[in-house]
Amino acid sequence: MVYNMVNLQAATSTENLRALEEVKDFYTTDLGRGGKERWTYHMLPEAALDVELHRMSNATSSTSVDSVTFQPCAAYAELNQDRYSIEEWELPGGVWQFTAIYDGHCGHDTVNYVHKRLPSMVRTSLQALLQSAPTTSPKPELVSEVLRNAVRRLDQSIRSDLLNFLPHDHLTKMSDVQLNRHVSLHDSEWNTISARCTQGSTVLLALSDPLKKNVWILNLGDSIAVLGSRPLSGQWSATIINSIHNCSNPSESMRIQQEHPSEQACVCDNRVLGYLAPTRALGDTWLKVPSVYTRRAFAPHLQDWLPSRQVAQYASRILTPPYISNLPEVYHHSLDVPQRELFLILSSDGLQDLYDNHDTQLSDQEMADHWVGLVGRYMHSTTDIGSMKSNLALRLLRDAVGGDDIELVSRNLTLEMEDKWMDDITILVQRFQ
């Protein structure tokens, strides 16, 4: 037998020292999970933390809105599924401000569709309302209806595309051969439709009028809006604007159970049908239509992230759809800008999740008080330097990923792990001036 020999020179002492220098700031963690598995992270100096956080969160600031969107896991399958909008619309009566967060789940197709379509749908409907109204200050309930209808129409368009492509009565009569032929003949169209129907997105948006006398908040899902307010001489107070649409909210869980009496599996494991945490969302059409669509049409697409056994299990629980609601809640607030300082925090649920993982558990109100206190403290700061200067959303994100704990912030920024260990986080802070 012949062996190939490779001769390697021993590393020099200089090379050894260089190698040690390169790894001296690397540490490992088990993420509190126990067991033998460890993941590596890089301890960054304080001077580099804010710069890196600014870069990774795509932090931006406009005249009145600061934004960040953050997901440290860089694996393609785990890329950030949050999207957001910051728009100003020149309409009759002046400039309206539109801001929104869309928190996608199970893929990027539906959230991209919502991000692209919803702002223009709201703007078109609002413009029509303003042009038809006798004044440029329409009744608040009419604006609320514009927002509510736009969201529902967008969700119905996803469902209509499905039903036009594959009507229910046709599907029930088709053989497997006929169904496969129909899908293969229109492969591209079906891939688009099925992706939007098996993925979903929540929506949290704010709309304010030109004089900043009114703000409307629409919520469909489990993101959160918090209004910070204080008199010109006084303390900051925090008001949670919206209810949270997930199964941890007893009223949402009860609503679903009342809509589906005698179906024990409609809410189980604190999820709708044991599958989805949000109780209201755009898309997720497979949970809004008869189960024959899941069993015969959607199964291959669901199997991208669900084993076939689980797909069959969830399909068997779809008895009286829909289970996920597309009915948003809209809240109107009158603003008294000349007499009060005001700002609005919009965030996807990933921000709340980070605080839930802290050693000290906070109630929703305590969390809101903390956020408003922190943002209020820096609203007029003259000591901010570098990348943190003036971006209030970035300040809030830094606090959430570890604050002054350099080791925790470093770990959250640099952990080398293929799987997503942190939910997507998007924060918008809007100042009313």
Automatic annotation (TrEMBL):
It holds the Pfam family PP2C. CDD domains: PP2Cc. Residues 62-432 form the PPM-type phosphatase domain. Coiled coil: none annotated. GO terms for molecular function: protein serine/threonine phosphatase activity. SUPFAM superfamilies: PP2C-like. It comes from the Eukaryota. Signal peptide: none annotated. This is PPM-type phosphatase domain-containing protein.
